[in-house]
Design goal:
globular; 20% strand; Spore Coat Polysaccharide Biosynthesis Protein SpsA, Chain A; eight-stranded mixed sheet; alpha/beta
Length: 239
């Protein structure tokens, strides 16, 4: 069984798209766990209505850890709520994961718009592929064996930014890491659009340098905040 774990906070707009893309997968031996950090919108109701197991969450690291506690699978797939999967994602991802004898893996990220896709390839996808063996990166989609997750001790909940990248590097010391070539995930660029492309990318680069030369970011120096405010319901609209 595969346990898909999704940390959420006010994701009523995006979560249904991800869950639908999971439902359409040919691979069916899965469970979906939503670890919610106290959403004020319909996120939890949507998750329950679609058959997900719901557990209390927190910041992304804590949410993933809480989801893992409730998981039954031998393989964990951690997904961000604002992505969607290609129709053949699990068939390709698990096939390559097994063929390459990986213990932990991540994928390239693909926005919808051409300009955004070009930027992602130059600034993210190409670097993580080139640095695959030297400096493992994982974000938005991480696949890891249950026993490796346990050896690492899960995600470090004291890290405020890039806890996923830190986890990936820790896990890569317990088994083989790889960036999957056979598939990808579709991502939304809302954070870049909200905070600005240059500002957001500079923040991520500085965070990377901090991790390399100082260590994981455990303060609020980069002012990263998980989730988005719940949208106000229109008058007369029920939830």
């Amino acid at each position: 069984m595969i346990s898909i774990i999704i940390p959420t906070l006010n994701e009523e707009e995006y979560l249904p798209k991800l869950l639908e893309s999971i439902r359409q997968q040919k691979f069916k031996d899965i469970e979906v766990i939503v670890a919610d950090a106290g959403s004020k919108d319909r996120t939890v109701a949507i998750a329950k209505a679609r058959g997900c197991k719901v557990t209390p969450g927190g910041l992304p690291g804590k949410g993933r850890n809480e989801g893992a506690k409730a998981a039954k699978g031998d393989l964990f797939v951690f997904l961000d709520a604002d992505i969607t999967l290609p129709a053949d994602f699990f068939a390709k991802a698990l096939g390559e994961f097994s063929k390459r004898d990986l213990a932990v893996a991540s994928v390239t990220l693909d926005p919808k718009k051409f300009f955004s896709r070009l930027l992602y390839w130059i600034l993210w996808n190409l670097p993580i592929v080139l640095l695959e063996w030297l400096l493992p990166h994982g974000a938005m989609c991480i696949i890891v064996k249950r026993n490796v997750f346990s050896k690492v001790g899960g995600f470090d909940e004291s890290i405020t930014l890039a806890e996923d990248a830190y986890f990936t590097r820790q896990a890569s010391q317990c088994g083989k890491f790889g960036i999957l070539r056979s598939t990808k995930v579709f991502v939304d660029t809302r954070r870049f659009q909200k905070d600005g492309w240059v500002r957001t990318y500079c923040k991520l680069v500085l965070c990377e340098l901090h991790m390399i030369f100082v260590g994981p970011v455990r303060s609020d120096i980069f002012k990263y905040h998980f989730g988005y405010p719940a949208k106000k319901q229109k008058e007369g609209k029920t939830t």
